[in-house]
Specification:
- Helix 4 packs across helix 5.
- The chain has a single domain, classed as Alpha/Beta hydrolase fold, catalytic domain (Rossmann fold, 3-Layer(aba) Sandwich).
- It has nine helices and eight strands.
- The chain is of the alpha/beta class.
- The protein is globular.
- The chain is about 35% helix and about 15% strand.
- Strand 5, helix 5 and strand 6 form a beta-alpha-beta unit.
- Strands 1-2-4-3-5-6-7-8 form an eight-stranded mixed beta sheet, with helices on both faces.
């Protein structure tokens, strides 16, 4: 008798870009795939864990790519930015020109697979968030491996959070991808430290499980055109020998009792879809007010500038207004 397989065999096939999404979104998906039908990002190979020089070289390449993207997307903005040093991290404080609540602030933790995303990209992200959501934004340029592995980045985020708590009474912490990992880990650590938790938590396609145990890590492998395959090498470099299942590394496994209202987002083609789905279910099981927004055919990190991205931004606006409601009447 043949042994029952521990999985499902899927025949080779072309997976079309669906017509259920906007034309702009379909164009983004098509642009990120080769004529042979493979995501361009699938061709990248990560260095060996021990080759720190190669990781530093990769960081320089990624940084240059981010800078080029920023230059291409640069728009006029009236938000001002001041860069300060908080502990070991540079923090870019972006302030919108329009009237805004002096009591509320948003701490932005950038993405970048826990190995990149700082510098000018981090500063620009803070400026965009401040202007788009009309809130003072603290964008944290946290330390990165291989020179500064775990827990350096988390320590920088917690130190910034403690500083911001002294300046504002309504603090929302958020991040995308790796930033979502750090945002959730910050809440887990703040709870353990018995310091006040934020008013709200924003997790955009969050990397909350560094063990990569969720279903979508297989189902959406090579389907996600932005993040087509595992980031385990980055996870191991960041963890530096620590247990990947520790709640400060994989906050999906943290004690979630008493956590703040949480906004989660993903897409049906996101490699991290299981992260958002499982985190949402665990938060709901813990009695936390949590909402999950899953967008049709959206890959990791969104489409970029499609109508779906604008809809997500509007949903986030609504969430921020709700969790910062106590100070909405106090505008400076």
């Amino acid at each position: 008798m043949d042994k029952q397989p521990d999985g499902l065999k899927v025949p080779e096939r072309i997976m079309p870009f669906p017509r259920s999404i906007s034309d702009e979104a379909r164009a983004v998906l098509a642009k990120l795939v080769s004529p042979e039908g493979m995501p361009y990002n699938a061709g990248h190979t990560l260095p060996a864990l021990s080759d720190h020089d190669a990781w530093r070289a990769l960081q320089r390449v990624i940084g240059a790519q981010y800078d080029a993207m920023l230059e291409a997307r640069a728009t006029a903005s009236s938000a001002t930015v001041e860069t300060v040093q908080i502990g070991h991290a540079q923090v870019h404080i972006a302030t919108p020109a329009a009237n805004h609540c002096s009591k509320s602030a948003y701490i932005h933790l950038h993405g970048g697979a826990l190995i990149s995303g700082g510098g000018s990209a981090c500063r620009e992200a803070g400026r965009i968030i401040a202007e788009r959501h009309n809130i003072r934004c603290y964008s944290v340029d946290y330390r990165l491996p291989p020179d500064h592995p775990f827990p350096a980045a988390l320590d920088d985020c917690v130190a910034t959070y403690q500083h911001v708590l002294q300046q504002h009474s309504q603090v929302v912490v958020g991040g995308q991808s790796a930033g979502g990992n750090l945002a959730a880990a910050l809440v887990a650590k703040a709870r353990d430290m018995e310091i006040p938790l934020p008013a709200g938590l924003v997790l955009l396609s969050p990397e909350v499980d560094l063990t990569e145990s969720g279903d979508s890590f297989e189902v959406n492998r090579l389907v996600d055109v932005r993040l087509p395959s595992s980031l385990m090498a980055c996870n191991l470099l960041y963890a530096n020998g620590a247990d990947l299942a520790h709640p400060y590394l994989s906050p999906l496994f943290a004690d979630l009792d008493g956590w703040p209202s949480t906004f989660l987002q993903s897409g049906t083609r996101d490699l991290f879809l299981s992260n958002a789905v499982r985190m949402h279910r665990r938060l709901r099981q813990a009695g936390v007010a949590a909402e999950l927004h899953v967008f049709e055919a959206m890959p990791h990190g969104g489409f970029g500038s499609a109508p779906e991205d604008e809809e997500l931004s509007e949903e986030l606006d609504r969430f921020l207004q709700k969790v910062c409601a106590p100070c909405n009447q106090d505008r400076e």
